Each structure stands twice: as C-alpha cells, then as structure tokens.
Amino acid sequence: MNRLAVALAPLILAAGAFSAQAQDPHAGHTMPPRTQQAKPAPDPHAGHQSPAPAAAQDPHAGHVTPPPQTPPVSDPHAGHQASAQPATVDPHAGHDMPTTPPVQADPHAGHDMSATPPAQADPHAGHDMSAMSMGPPDVPTSADNPGRPPEDPLPAAALGGPAHAADLVFGAETMAAARQTLVRENGDIRTTAVIVDRLEAGFGDEDETWLWDVQGWTGGDINRFWWKSEGEGDLDGGLEEVELQALYSRAVTPFWDVQAGVRQDFRADGDDTTHLVLGLQGLAPYWWEVDAAAFLSTEGDLTARVEAEYDQRITQRLILQPRLEIDLSASDIPELEIGSGLTSVEAGLRLRYEFRKEFAPYVGVEWSRAFGNTADYIEARGGDPEDIRFVVGLKAWF
After folding, report:
1. Integer Cα distance of 64 and 85 in angstroms
2. Are 202 and 210 in contact (CB under 8 A)?
3. Distance (Å, rounded) from C-alpha 258 to C-alpha 192?
4. How many helices (H) and strands (E) does the chain have?
C-alpha cells in the first residue's frame, strides 16, 4: 500500500501543478522581472479541490506594477463626487504593453480653466470691438475685425532714424536749406495789393462832393503792413479833410486780423490831429466785410468807427453792394463839431458792373444822418443834419 502511494504521488503533484497553471489568468504573458522579492512559499493547498471563494480575489495580487511612462488617462469626472459608483479596476495594471501607444493625457482635465486664457490666443477673438475703434468715433476700421491677424509692434529701429529720410542721402544742412526755400516760395509768399473801395462823386440838394477811400497792404499770410487813406472835398471848393493810417496787421484767425498803428488827420483849417489806432478787420458770417477801429487822439478824445459791406451778386458781373458806416464818440469835441454818443450814420446802396475783376464802375444812392449834439452843431452853422445823395464812382484793385 505504501508503495502504491509513493508511485501515485508524482502524478498527484503534476495534476495539481497543471490545475494551478490553468487558473492563472496571466499565463503566457511576459511579466517584468521582479526585484527584491522573496520566493513565494508553496501553496499548501496545491492539488486540492478548493471551494469557491466567497469574494473575488484581486487577479493582480502580488504583482509589481512598474511606474507608468506617461500619466494615465484621466477620469473625465475627476474632482466630482462619485461615491455611488465603484471604481473600475484597470485589468492591465502592471502589464507590459509595448505594442500599445500611450494615450496623451489632458493636463487640464478636472481643472477650472475659466480664468486662464489659452496660450497665444487672439485677445480680441469673440469680442465686440465696435466700441474700441482705432479710428475716428463711429468709424469702423480693420482693427475691429475679430478675424484680423495680430500685428507685431514696430521694431525699435523703425523710429531710430532722422525725421526726414532725405537727410541720410543729401545731408541734414542741405535739406534744411531746401525746406526753408520751399516754405518761402510756397507757404510764406510776400505780396502787395492796392484796393480802391470808393473813388466817387456825390450830388446832393445843397452841394456836390467828391471823396476817395483807398487802402492797401504788403506782407505774408500772418503779418502785414496796412495803410488806409480817406479824403473828401467839394467840387466847387478845395480839399477839406484827409485821413491817413499806418498799421501793423496780424492774422489771429483765418478770417480776422488785429490791427494797431497811428492815424494822422489833415484839415484845411490847419487843425491837424494824431491818433493811436486799435482795430479789427475781416470777414464776418454771411460774407460781410467788416472794418472796426477805435481812435485815441493826442488831445485825449476817444472815437470809434465801424464799416460793413456785402457783395450780392446778381450775375457774374453785376453786383449790388449795401454799405453801412457808424461813427461814435466818447465825449463832445466842439472844435470838430462832434457830439458824444452816436454821432452819425451813413447807409448806401451801390450797383457796379465788373468789366474785369480789377475794374468796376458803379452808381448808387447814399443816405446820411447826424445825431445828438453833432446834429446840433450842424444846425447851428446853418447846415442840414440829414442828406441824400446820388453817387457815381469806380471800384478797382491792383
């Protein structure tokens, strides 16, 4: 009997080993070498019929899992509470899978990325740029296009050269002289003009008069020298009064010049007077040409005069010109028959025909009236403070 047991023992051991090998789920797999592992003790139950285990055993128990070369696939629900769902065990944990390419893991899985902009993203993508226009208000430009590619800033060398590129070719001194010549010949031109506003004779009820009203200037667009001259007399008599002004004029706006200078009056009785002048001359709205000035005499008398003219074109050559002149005085000047306040008003209407722009004869009518003490002075010497005259004259310039 003992001999029979001894003879059957190898067969029983071989059958147990075969059974154990069939139960190993990793049979035929290439297992990585085990390091620093003691040899496991032999199963005391090898070859025995083991009852079914109450709980499933971990098939990877006792396996050494090498560290993964790439991070494992992240759970898309990482960071969420998932207590009701049991974790699934990776059946290939610890296996050498050389033929399976690793899956690139998302480094931001489970992270709150709402406050982190993507790298090298267009900062204007998806934004309404209509309120951030680079041009004038309410004028869209290409910078408002969300799909516009980003532009690199200007390199430092772009603004490192001279202000004028021609200086590198011809030299800074040569180009500076050339630019001064260009300004002088095209933007700082010196010109001269003489304007004959009125050269006329007047015919009234009591007398026949003649007068001139001439002015001119020389200079540039900003600074000019102006001169003005007026004179009048009787056709039957001689010259009664002459006025001459020398003024410095400076443009303060595109349509207005401030003028300052001196005025000299010459009279037939020899009572000449000198005045300081401060005036304003230019083009008012609705194309009214205005010449206003205040005069302070060497005697301390302050007077003022305002003239306004307007050219109403009827045709290209026929022009109707209304004209208004107002004189004022701050005090009575008996020797000149001038009273304080509003001294006189002249209003005229002249119709001229321009044979050329520089030559235009005219005819018209003019009404004049003295007021206040000025009228009293005229009446005291037997004159009429109000007068209406028919005028004929010439307007020219050169």
Report:
1. 27
2. yes
3. 18
4. 4, 13
3-class DSSP string for 3-68: HHHHHHHHHHHHHHHHHHHHHCCCCCCCCCCCCCCCCCCCCCCCCCCCCCCCCCCCCCCCCCCCCC
Place of tokens 């008996």: 334
pTM above 0.90, yes or no: no
Determine the Cα angle at 204 with ends 198 and 207, to 5°: 95
The whole-angstrom separation of Cα 346 and Cα 342 is 12
In whole angstroms, give the CA distance from residue 207 to residue 188: 48
Task: Give the pair of three-digit tokens for residue 218.
Answer: 């020389």
Q: Which two tokens stand for residue 215?
A: 């002015």
Question: What are the 10-residue block averages of pLDDT along the chain, 398 residues in total?
Answer: 50 48 48 45 49 46 48 48 46 52 54 50 54 55 73 81 89 93 80 96 89 96 95 88 97 96 93 96 96 97 98 97 98 94 97 96 97 95 93 97
